[in-house]
Amino acid sequence: MLKSSFFLGQKSTYVDDNGIFRYVKNDKEIRLFGVNYTLPFAHGFRAINYVNKNHKEAIDKDIYHITRLGLDAYRVHIWDMEITDSLGNLIKTPQLDLLDYTLAELKKRGIKTIVTPFKVGGNGYPEKDFDVEGFSSKLGKWQTYSGDTVLEKQERYFTQLLNHVNTYTGITYKNDPAIIALEINNEPQHTNGKVATTYINKMVNVIRKAGFKNPIFYNVSERSAFIDDYLKADIQGCTFQWYPTGLVHNSLLKSNFLPNVDQYQIPFQEKKAFQNKTRIIYEFDAGDTNSSVIFPAMARSFREAKFQFATQFAYEPIDLAFANTEYQTHYLNLAYTPSKAISIKIAGEIFRETPNGKSFGRFPKNNTFLNTKLNYENEVAIYNSDTKFFYTNTTKETPRNSKKLKHIAGVGNSEIINYAGNGAYFLDKIEKGIWRLEVLPDVLWVKDPYEKASLKKTVAVLQENKNKIKIDLKNLGNRYFIKGINTDNSFENQAEDRSVIIQPGTYIISLNKLADDFKLNQKFGNIRLNEFATNHQKINQTYVVHQPKKEIEKGDNLTIEAKIVGPNKINKVEVVLNTGYQKTDNYKMTKRSNFSYIVTIPKTKIYNESFNYYIVITTDKKQITFPENVSGNPANWDFVSNTKYTTKIVEKEPIIVLYDAIKDTSKNFLWPRQWNAIKYNIEKVTHKIASKNYLSVYADNLNAKNPDLTFKVLLKDVVKREQNNLTKTQSIVVTASSENKNNQKVQIAVQLKNGQVFGKVIELPSEMEDINIPFEQLQQVSQVLLPRPFPPFQSYFLKSSENSSFNAKNIEAIQISIGPEIKKENYTKPQQVSIYKILLK
């Protein structure tokens, strides 16, 4: 007993003289990759009550999924205001109990933790802040770094927290070897360097005096101007964050953001005092994206920059993921974002296997490295080693070594697994001829999860469909046996031609029937064989996910696609249009998958200036008509609906409209936003005559580190619609002016899917004019990385290493820059651009 207590009190990690974070036990270099998870506190804590769920059961499910993804790192900033009184004393609250529980359950799964004890800031988001007793609840960050009273409260809190005995482990925080480091506080915002040094040393002394022996880290990226002052303090490591696509765009971003994560740059990495410091990424995410290639690329870039611990912010609890309310700009959950979740599993493999500081070159040449391939256009990340084969979407890639293969995880189809559902699945070898299969439910996003959050709306639904799965593993044969082993799963069958129909759950698949003494609950790594977790989501209404095509040209057929889910069995889906009193034309849609329906309207049925239609769903209960979700059918005498889906029918013209100030909204715009040094104004100027509308962009000056003001228009939907016409285009036509300013220079450029950007600087007259730029006049220029990232010291420009010629079929965005070729002496002058439209002709 004495020996055990002695061991628990020992430090478990250290930082060596070269800044390498290591385990004491074996001196092994630490490489840990995982997530933040905040359900024990703030909105997550309250929201579980709102949806009438049990906190610990919710935590159990999420920790199981986090473990299932192979993640081994956890970071949490504690909402100290919810576990302290006004004097800084630690008090027993439900939040503290849940923190204890979470740390204990993570420890059981082999997951290591970095704790950030102190967080100044509200506890409400996305709600209003809630009044609590905690001493930091009324403080601003600037008030926490000096002053005897506030420092005494912090000392009291830190001391009591570190000496707090975790109810579920029986170990104090200071003695728990699974808590491998502390980060003093969350995102400090210093305004005085000397005060920062004094504050850090004061808190380090408090932490050491309390008995914590593992390394202590401090954030250096939030206010990096004071880096020299941070490095003077007695810390063993520096913490950073990375949000390469900005935050809170309020809608899903659709673009190739691999250039944005090409490299993590640390501008002060050559400083001598920095060389012996461990590097930690406490938070990262590609906000407002659902890309399944970004996390693997970020992991690659983290290791090139010598980071040893990285945690995404933040894993969405499965019981809240239907609404994504915790942090609307982030969305990661194994069940609700399956491809993205498998991508973070791949990222963990990359992070652990990549040597410290290893570079794989620059974009796009670094899209293939070690065991990984990234394909942006097909949204596929593939990890393919001797024993592991993981993929984020359907792939034709062949496993490297099928004989040695032990672990498979994916979404969609591969050479090994053909699956009719769209949820994630895992196939793991237990022993020769016996594998464990786990299948998650199908998922459908019914609203944009990055829009304003509310528990009153559903953004995604899970449906536990029966789906056919075909498993092609030679050591299982054509007629393998399959047995359901999770709770309430009594399924048992034998495959025909390697195929079987199953529902979500956990199964044992075997060449021969399982022996009676086979232990279904045996440990398998950090999980048990019969574990399974899901959210049995009740679907209360019918959802139709459909965006009508903006326009088609006269003489073209119109293909209409929709994704549909509802509480009742769907017998028929039709596209319906009125043709007279109580008369309609009906076009039955063909079901392609669990949610997807499609129909093509022949060109002979398309006339007038627009095609206006409904989607009518016939269930075993009733008929429902969309887009207004009303009961009945347009053929009924008493049917009332004021809205229809509309596709405009336009003349065949040799132009493609990329931007039109009359029609376009700002949803597809990328602006420099909050971290850009240049102050600018954007205004859409509207007139009674719509053709006079224009977008005005104005800046007082270009005085900044980067004398450049760039914005982009994303064109993914336009390009998809206009693929046939793109090959015929020969020039860009810009209709613009400088308003009252003569000779305003502006660079008009088009960004391709491979990251290349081709552009030309033109001069705008004071009056509106059409300016033609033939493609042959375009030169390769640098891409401006938007949205701007945090921390803001990341790269502003990227020049793709690709050397392909310009191809209009690969256009992805318009890049408009005020700055190129403007003379330095003109940086102090106002800049004005007014854009009416941009076409390809």
How does this structure look, described?
This protein is of the alpha+beta class. 14% of the residues lie in helices and 31% in strands. Strand 7 (216-219), helix 7 (227-232) and strand 8 (237-242) form a beta-alpha-beta unit. The relative contact order is 0.08.
Percent helix, as a range, is 10-25%
Global structural class: alpha+beta
Q: Segments where pLDDT lies below 50 for 5+ residues?
A: 1-7
What is the mean predicted local confidence, pLDDT?
95
How far is the N terminus from the C terminus?
Answer: 81 Å
* Secondary structure tally: strands: 52
CATH architecture annotation name of the largest domain: Alpha-Beta Barrel
The outline comes out as globular
Number of helices: 11
Hey, roughly how much beta strand do the residues contain? 25-35%
Counting structural domains, the number is 3
Oligomer: single chain
Strand order of the largest sheet: 11-12-13-14-15-17-18-25-22-23
Classified in CATH, the superfamily of the largest domain is: Glycosidases
Q: Nearest-angstrom radius of gyration?
A: 29 Å
What do we call the CATH topology of the largest domain? TIM Barrel
Give a short account of the largest sheet: 10 strands, mixed
CATH top level label of the largest domain: Alpha Beta
Pfam families: GH5_mannosidase (PF26410)
Protein name: mannan endo-1,4-beta-mannosidase
EC number: 3.2.1.78
Organism: Polaribacter porphyrae
